[in-house]
Amino acid sequence: xxxxxxIAGGGVISGIGLNLRECLRAFREMEPGMGAMKYLxxxxxxxxxxxxxxxxxDTLADMAGLPENISRTALLxxxxxxxAWQSSGLDDISxxxxxxxxxxxxxxxxxxxxxxxxxxxxxxxxxxxxxMHHECGSVTEIVADAMGIRxxxxxxxxxxxxxxxxxxxxxxLIRNNIVDVVIAGGTDALTRFTLNGFNTLMILDQxxxxxxxxxxxxxxxxxxxxxxxxxxxxxxxxxxxxxRLSGFANANDAYHQTASSPDGTGNYLAMxxxxxxxxxxxxxxxxxxxxxxxxGNNDVSEGIAxxxxxxxxxxxxxxxxxxxxxxxxxxxxxxxxLSAISVKEGIIYPNARFEHQMKELPFTPAxxxxxxxxxxxxxxxxxxxxxxxxxxVFSSF
Amino acid sequence: MLTIxxxxxxxxxxxxxxxGGPLLARLHEYEQVRLATVDPDYKQWIDVKQIRRMSRVxxxxxxxxxxxxxxxxxxxxxxxxxxxxxxxxxxxGVFLTKMVNQQEEMLTPTAFIQSTHNTVGGQIALxxxxxxxxxxxxxxxxxxxxxxxxxxxxxxxxxxxxILVGGLDELxxxxxxxxxxxxxxxxxxxxxxxxxxxxxxxxxxxxxxxFFTLGTKPGEHTAAELTGISTLYKPMWxxxxxxxxxxxxxxxxxxxxxxxxxxxxxxxxxxQDDIYEEVVEALFPEHPEASFKHLCGEYPTAAGFGMWLAxxxxxxxxxxxxxxxxxxAPRSIKKILLYNHHQGTHHSLILLSHVE
Lengths: 397, 356
Prior knowledge:
The complex is a heterodimer. Chain A is built from 12 helices and 10 strands. By secondary structure, chain A is an alpha/beta fold. Chain A folds into 2 domains: 6-236, Peroxisomal Thiolase, Chain A, domain 1; 244-395, 3-Layer(aba) Sandwich (Peroxisomal Thiolase, Chain A, domain 1), CATH 3.40.47.10. Chain B has an 11-stranded mixed sheet, sandwiched between helices. The chains are: A alpha/beta, B alpha/beta.
């Protein structure tokens, strides 16, 4: 059995770049991805900024090598999953027992919502092709089939922590000797369904979001996909892995369907559990990639839980959602890739637009890009609706 | 290897499965293409005010979860793992319809909040006050199986003693309409007890929730252990399925001869039932066989109903007449192999063994 599980590579597509290097460049150059909606069609086009992937479906379909009428969620997923695989140095996929574990929140909803307009007018109408991939699992299978993955395919949907939970499950599939390699992460495209849903909750900011800032008023939605390649010890020995996935925990806040508890119970339990599994003390964490959505509720709960666990030794921290927006089911995957490369290259990401310290918290996020820091251990937080809280810890060798 | 016990089960289905009593003693016989759950009185578990706001899938999930915990005598599981292919379709449909009809204006949050796939798992945790591990698998015909695999791994890792795991899906007006257009269902109504002999294409639509409390120590009423679980995605041909079953049995230290009863996911669609014939002919030609989808209908997490039935059969050491498909029920039932597939693409195997 594999004792450890390693990150052999990763891929990202998001509102700040079509691949990981482009995304890193955007952080370095302080170029957040929010702007007016260009590809999503919505009556709220001029009200809410979003972080869209800067390419239309035809372009993405070309990149992915899939038909352009396929759900954007699947196009994004395949592009990032392929980048992750190529970066791992594993070469021919058919040589390994491979699993694909992908998180998403609304599957092929981008097509379903187009279908529904015609269907509601007459339930014999609407092109069935548009609902064929409505199911979350169907989006995963488009990608698994395109990449030739059959040993294990699964889809996780725990709202905004889906991508993080995919990494945990992938780790355990390797440890339990079910597969040797897992591509794990998440994907979500922007849809009117989620945009309007978050709007009813009144947690969308009409300005670019300000995570962990006293003046924050909500989040910006984003879209994208992010995957890491997890490998067993024996495969890692032949590769140049980035780092290890050394710890993780999943806990439930059990407080409210959409809101976090004021003291961040679930957040605390997830971070504490992940540290315990890694065998680390809080002061050994060098950087935290925050969940940091920019809503009043999330940032205070997350911050209070961090204060309780880390005070007085606060690591550097920042919310990369200040660049990518909140990519929902993809966020855990995207931020896992950013955290893994952070361990490898010593990167601390800037938290854009931070100006005012939150009155409840004794710490402030990092505001400038830096690399080459000595980061042995990096934590990534993902919290979601349904009380689902997850934390991951990435460690150097 | 660590033994994993089924210490409690709860099932809400188109049959009278939530009321307790002898297994499937009173058959609900239907002559329709769409089955709906027989609902228990949800007030026994959920506050009346909350019931009104909950969709059917959440209610059936909370109900089956509670039944299973009660049967196991467990107040608080260490983890909750849910499998649902479609998630909360009803609330999704409500929000989507209003969004389209009202051109994205004047929408209210309730349906959106309850539309996320982890609503059921989240609600169970909320009602139990359970801060433990909570995960939701949403992978088509593997949703329940992946939840089960996650549970088995976690118990083997030693990080939990008791885990609540379940599979569920609801059928709604919209999903039935749309899935019908894909040609999944029979054109004419079929009687429950005639479905599996039906000579035509298509099956009947179903829904339901089945939850299990699995533990590393047996409880007072434990009748079965979960010996193995495996999935096979998009096999190229029948031979691959047969090979996979042989390998699965071998991995679990048994042969077809050790299987006392085969439980299959036949659904009355002549095309889809073909593979069961092939498997039976190749590996289990003389084995007694029971089936269950004529009772609960076809849905992606129907294997949960099958596992509930198999556990009940091991407990009673008898097969209900209405479930028997071929041969005579054996007098002593030690091992049951559940073989199910969903739409020919998602095949799964669940092996249960009797606990004396």
